């Protein structure tokens, strides 16, 4: 009742536990609320999950000269295709000026590129 009624709002383990503790207590309260919330389908569908991948974030050093260093990525496949048959977009950003180029492409041919050109 402290978790599922419309006014309760599926607020998660901590807030549900606090709400119950205002009026009730039993020895396994913490464990029971945790088990209940972990089995609650709406909570599992809405919860945010944080992953730690172990890779530290490195700052991107902005170059001093425009058009010297570019960041390039590909978006797609896009649905539906454009009238001209383009299904992908190649995006390139100049890291100094932040100039953006977006070029539609009908297909992408993948090949292994060196880490530094």
UniProtKB/TrEMBL annotation:
Bilayer-spanning residue ranges = none
Q: Output the superkingdom of the source species.
A: Eukaryota
Q: Which Pfam families match?
A: Integrase_H2C2
A molecular function GO annotation? nucleic acid binding
All copies of the Integrase zinc-binding domain together span 2-48
| Family matches, as PANTHER family | ENDONUCLEASE-RELATED
Protein name, per record: Retrovirus-related Pol polyprotein from transposon 412
Source organism (scientific name): Trichonephila clavata (Joro spider)
């Amino acid at each position: 009742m402290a978790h599922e009624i419309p006014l309760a709002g599926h607020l998660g383990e901590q807030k549900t536990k606090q709400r119950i503790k205002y009026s009730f207590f039993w020895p396994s309260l913490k464990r029971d609320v945790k088990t209940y919330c972990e089995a609650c389908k709406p909570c599992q569908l809405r919860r945010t999950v944080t992953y730690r991948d172990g890779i530290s974030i490195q700052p991107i050093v902005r170059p001093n000269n425009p058009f010297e260093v570019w960041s390039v990525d590909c978006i797609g496949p896009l649905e539906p295709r454009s009238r001209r048959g383009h299904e992908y977009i190649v995006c390139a950003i100049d890291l100094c000026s932040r100039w953006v180029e977006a070029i539609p492409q009908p297909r992408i041919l993948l090949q292994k590129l060196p880490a530094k050109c």
